[in-house]
Each structure stands twice: as structure tokens, then as C-alpha cells.
Design goal:
The protein is of the alpha/beta class and 146 residues long. It has 6 helices and 5 strands; from the N terminus they run βαβααβαβααβ. 45% of the residues lie in helices and 21% in strands.
């Protein structure tokens, strides 16, 4: 296994996403890697309603997104991550995560498993399944929900 230098994790403020942040932070601490925590948001409620997938928490506006990142950054520090960056991106969670991964040239993307085993997830796709298919880097899907 190669060393991870840049690790991306997404948060929407949910308990599930915070568990993924904590796992990513532990890995970042172990590899002395940069941890990049991202949060997607919808600019309008109309934008949010256009998505077919309703398996993720909807973050409306960048103010809640920045608050989510503050909480996630504090949790990551508690798990030993020292080099933490935060990024807010408009769009769907998948679009935002893929943009962050590609811009950062990340080595690892960490996501929770929420939605992957739901009926909607099986029919329409889920954030973890979609990013795993699209990502050019390693993807770790953390078991965060049953």
C-alpha cells in the first residue's frame, strides 16, 4: 500500500458523515497526510428538488455548509489530523466530491455507506457507489449505517 498524501472526505453534517470524517482523520494522522474536508450545498431549494436522489442530507446555502465544516474540522483534530483544509462546493454531493478529488489530485476518498443498501440506492445509485465508479483514486467506503 502506498502512502496517502491527500485524503478527501465529505460531510453533510449528519452522524454518518461525521463517522467517515473521523475515519479519514485517523488515516490522515497515520500517514501525516493532508485531510481535505468538503461539503456540497445547493444554492436554492429548486436546485435541491431537481435531484432524483433523496438519500443524503440536503445542505441549502453555504452558511450551513461552513458550519458543517467547522464541526467536521474539530472532530478531525480530535482524531489526530493536523493538516486540515476545508472546501465548500455548490452542486450535488457526487459532483462536489469529484471536483474536490480532481482539483486536489487526492490519493484517497473516504465516504460513508449511507444509501448504498437502500432500494433507492440500488435503483438510482448512491453517493458512495457513484463516487466509487467515477473516482480515479482509491475509495474507502466506511460502514457508518446499518
Amino acid at each position: 500500500m502506498s502512502d496517502y498524501k491527500k485524503i478527501v472526505v465529505g460531510t453533510d453534517g449528519s452522524k454518518s458523515s461525521m463517522l467517515a470524517v473521523e475515519r479519514a482523520a485517523g488515516i490522515a494522522a497515520a500517514f501525516n497526510a493532508t485531510l481535505i474536508i468538503g461539503c456540497a450545498y445547493y444554492e436554492t431549494s429548486e436546485d435541491a428538488s431537481k435531484t432524483l436522489r433523496q438519500d443524503s442530507v440536503t445542505v441549502l446555502g453555504d452558511d450551513p455548509a461552513y458550519k458543517n465544516l467547522e464541526s467536521a474540522s474539530a472532530a478531525a483534530q480530535e482524531k489526530g489530523a493536523t493538516n486540515i483544509e476545508t472546501v465548500v462546493k455548490p452542486g450535488t454531493p457526487v459532483e462536489a466530491l469529484m471536483s474536490i478529488v480532481n482539483e486536489a489530485q487526492a490519493d484517497l476518498l473516504v465516504v460513508g455507506n449511507r444509501g448504498i443498501n437502500t432500494l433507492t440506492g440500488r435503483l438510482l445509485g448512491s453517493v458512495p457507489a457513484d463516487v466509487a465508479r467515477q473516482s480515479q483514486c482509491d475509495v474507502m467506503i466506511v460502514h457508518t449505517v446499518n
